[in-house]
Amino acid sequence: MTFQTEKRLVRDFYAALDGAETDRIPDVLARFVAPDARWRGFYPFGERVGPQDVAQAFWMPLRRSLSRLQRRQDIFFAGRNEIDGFESTWVVSMGHLMGLFDAPWLGIAPTRKLVFLRYCEFNRVEDGRITETAMYFDIPHLMMQAGLKPFPSQTAAHLVQPGPMAHDGLLFEDAPAAEGQKTLAAINAMIGDLGSWQLGLPLEEELARTWHDDMLWWGPAGIGSTYTIERYAKQHSGPFRAAFTNRSATTHLCRLAEGKFGGFFGWPNFTAVHRGGFMGLPGSDTPAEMRVIDIYRREGDKLAENWIFIDLLHFWKMQGHDILPQTAEIAPA
Question: Does the predicted model carry a pTM greater than 0.90?
Fold first, then answer.
């Protein structure tokens, strides 16, 4: 099984998009993206259909705000989607979009300084076109770089996140199929343990079944990042589970792996009721959605690193807290 055709198309798309003048971005998307392609992006962008809508709503305003935009990829891989019986092929890219914050974006005042927008993108490729995209990005992280404090507190450390420890995440050449199968098995074992938080073991014992003791959990701004099972349990997983109830079953739209890397996304991944205390905000009786991308690195038979993207702006909007300073300039789809 080879993914060279799909990888080449996405790499060519990125080269054309990143090198295009802002007013040529619609033409680039029209060349690589199917006319009826479905695009999912974090709040306030929502679901979009077709390359022109995506260009006008997301890419062109972003490029006008972050001048000299540069893509800095840390992870790139492809694979077949387990969720649809390994029928569709997806290409995954994760890293940062870096630029000079020279004009307002989403009501965030520019700093005229260097900023990073964390992103992870899943692209489904069929018949030489991108036909479906999940583009998730950490807007609160950019807000914090601009001097704002979107959330009252976070339980772990806020960082600009590095790529994999061995700097080996760019799988431009195909990895052996057996390695991807091992990674997918490790991810599925973790999901099976996670379930609905009902495994019945002490938290650190549960985590040790599928994670290395020196695990790295690179969480989104508002939660932060943490290191080792013990600190992850204390600085995120334990407080998170304590703050929520009525967690639904996990659902994914795509789950795949290649080599030592794999991941998934959902829309949403699950719903839960916030009892209070998460990120320093009050609880609510309203179930809210967690739209999440998780990217993993496997080492041996366990997971070693995890990069997480959560649409916290959407989650809190459903709870009655609109975190963005202004959202009038783009209506959610």
Answer: yes
